[in-house]
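Cont'd.
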Amino acid sequence: MSRDAARGLVGVVSRDAARGLVRETGGDELLERLDHLDRVRAAARPSEEGTPDTPDAGTETDFDVVIAGGGLFSVLAPTLAARGLRVAVLERGRAGVAHREWNASGPELRPLVESGLVAEDELERLVIARYRTGTCSFHGGGSYPVDGVLDHAVDAGALLSLARARSEQRGVTFLDGHALVSQRSGPDAIALRVRTRDGDREIVARLLVDARGASSPYATADLVCPTVGGVMTGLASGSGPGEMDPEVGEILATVDPIHEGRQHVWEAFPGRPGETTVYVFYYARAEEPTSLVKLYARFFETLPTYKRGDARLVRPTFGLIPGWSRLTPAPAPPPGRVVLVGDAAARHSPLTYCGFGATLRSIVPATDLIARAAFEPGLVPPHAMQDAPVHALTGALAHMLASRAFHGDEMNGLLDASFATLHAMGQGPYAELLRDELAPEALVTFLERTARRHPAVWGQVVRGLGLTRAGRWGWSVARSMVGGRAAA
Ligand SMILES: Cc1cc2nc3c(=O)[nH]c(=O)nc-3n(C[C@H](O)[C@H](O)[C@H](O)COP(=O)(O)OP(=O)(O)OC[C@H]3O[C@@H](n4cnc5c(N)ncnc54)[C@H](O)[C@@H]3O)c2cc1C
């Protein structure tokens, strides 16, 4: 298939053709990542393979902290090294190479500066686009503008390569082509078995930070958000239907009814001049089989129903983002010297899946916690993420959206009623919900008003969650309602 095949993405696209387009535009390494993610979910179990011997008390360590996974959470390497810790980053591919594009609101980016990771002028250069406003719109429903949400596009590649350069200046060791296979904790150290092209080796550290994202065997959250797409050129520019306005971020958009049990949701964010990052995703339960390659085929096939123009994929980006409903046990590592971060810990919103924003919020507290835990026995926490209180209630909504109990335009009707309600509540609560800042009591108000607008929601909650979970969730909502009224 020629490079020109990436143009004019119309008609039925087979899975092989979709893989071909990813290879042509992203290269063999990126295609390997795509196939790896599709494989790994089927096999993600803690491995006993070649588990090292338990390191004795007082064992000499190679590093204080080893971060397994050189994706977004490798930004912790330079902040830990700045505290004087001996840090290594293990990555099965190459660390510090972003395979994503990231959006956040301006204030959410501040921890990058506050943590000493980047200077003010560097942050300014990392922001490649800013938008006037954002919208959420639903098939057969309305379009609801919102300000101050995901309105800064960040050059993800530049951010991670800057973090890598800063890490290297601070003495961090990068071990590219090193995959963590298994580990064993001792009283004050952890032994790691690591696989390289030349065979296995063992590394001993005080602490393992598991930043392997969806590939971690401890990423046991009950939901998952398969997402595919990438940076595109050639989309029709303008503010009409099917056009891309370079001043507007499209945060959520549905353009069709449920297909094969899934409501597909689109996003489109302007990037560098002439470029737009476009994704399609759906909500799913973790135990269900998913295929990113299949989703790519659908992306190429149905993009023309979302955007017009002579679309050309210039950089594929994709991933599986774990999500936790808070209705099941939390993802946690085995007792010992392992700390989960990022997608593996799944403490971000299971509704918006904004793991970049959640990471930014966690950089400073996670650096503090991990730096202490490396040296104080008994202080190792299961995870080092900030969790917003509102997720305790929105988790069940996400679980419902992942259910396959809906048909036709039912999900569109529900989303439309929800966003119409949020919009009517005002820009404050609307933006706060999407930035994970909404107080649980305000979320209860939102639920009450949505139910008034869309009474079918009660039946949908029971159908989507099942009676027991719906009851448990109703109890949490009632508690927040009583708590909120008492506080008022
Ligand atoms: C397409 C897409 C777009 C997104 N856009 C946004 C956005 O605009 N805003 C937002 O807030 N969030 C966004 N997110 C979410 C965000 O990207 C993730 O939450 C974030 O990347 C999680 O960081 P992480 O470090 O936990 O995992 P990752 O960044 O996924 O990194 C995990 C790393 O671990 C490596 N690895 C896996 N197994 C091993 C092993 N055994 N040994 C060593 N290394 C291993 C992988 O190769 C990978 O590099 C997006 C996600 C996707 C998929």
